[in-house]
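Researcher: Go.
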Amino acid sequence: MSLPKPIGRQKEVLCLPARGHFAVLGTAGSGKTTLAILRAAYLADSGTDHYGKTLLVTFNKALVTYLKHIQDRQLLGNVVIENYHTFARGYLAARNKLSHNEILSDSDRREALVKQGIKLISQRYDSYPLFKLPVEMFSEELRWMAQHGITTCETYKNVERVGRAEARIERQDRELVFEIYQTYRNLRSHKYDWDDIATAVCTEFDADNSTRLYRHIVIDEGQDFSPEMIRSLAKAIPPNGSLTFFGDVAQQIYGHRMSWRSAELNINKVWEFKENYRNSKQIAQLGLAISKMPYFKGVPDLVEPVSPPADGPLPTLVECSSIDQEIVFVVKQAIQLAKTQSVAVLFRDRQDEKLIKRSLPTASIRLHREMTTWQAGSGIRYGTYHSAKGLEFDAVILPFCNNSKLPDTEAVAAFGEVGAAIQDGRLLYVGVTRAKTRLIITYSGEITGLLPTNTSLYEKVSL
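Model: Structure:
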């Protein structure tokens, strides 16, 4: 498949200097992934004086599979496409810092170890309020510490948590939380987990005086990278190399709540792309309305989208009398639309996915982290909002958008109403903006409060 052609101001960013750090922030549908591919091809062009081996790195494995599908070998022969953890594991293994089974990849096991660490520390205190917080709160806090490269108690006590509106751990309790973090790491038999592996990469690059493998690195969907991941990638290029960051802060769904500034990149100018080339006018207007919801308030570097001129049907909001009726409707609609279009049925989590998966045609394709091939054209794809990051489809169906699913009740218990709304509201934004021309949102019971209430944004249907 041939590479797409740059449009408008995209041509300017394509040919930015081949030395230094650059940030390109854009709204959903503004062509960031297209531009990331073109930028990588430009930097890896053997006919130029800036030529060098180039890494195009993203967070989502499904997106890696998609990028490889559209890769033009003639132009991208010197471009390596990987997700971050593949890059990190490869580098640490090459430096003899990683061998078999040294990464804790089981999330349930990780949470059990965090819980064990909390129990060990809490035994020294009698009914101290901190230890009444949900284990999920501690688990997320420890993840946040690792993602920001916090390795000492003093650093943790003094750090300002930009964008951490959902945090409920008081500053005076940070010393205890850091002790829990140390206890978790001591209990862990694995050398790393998925969050602190980036710090190991940073540390190793600081000690590595050898020639860098890549001269240029292009980061796609950069908002999903932790600050420590981005720092490690900045250390992976030589002084005469470049790092180009493409991201959309409105789509932060992995909990980092970060601006590219958090990663200490040396950027003089930020390029912003507000034009939406993907969504119809009606879908873009819903996305814009979502970006104005309270859970987006105060987001740094938010690029407000411009509604495109292309016309289409209003998003359809379908009220069902029961979950069973909702499942039947969603499956019927997906099958009908998939005859001529690419259709994605997207869910908040795998539990919701299972409710509909068994009723979908066997030829339906699941979006997941281990995808190795990509099938273009009409048909049904299904998966979580996370798995659809960076992808687009002619039609998207979002089931189970009721107030008991969005925000998730467990997230509310762990992070509070505000924190859960921030997390799941942005998930919903991602789901909505995957649709090019057709969007169907279904619910039974009471509709989620994360959707805008403006009735002019939808065509409402009751079954």
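Model: The mean pLDDT is 87.
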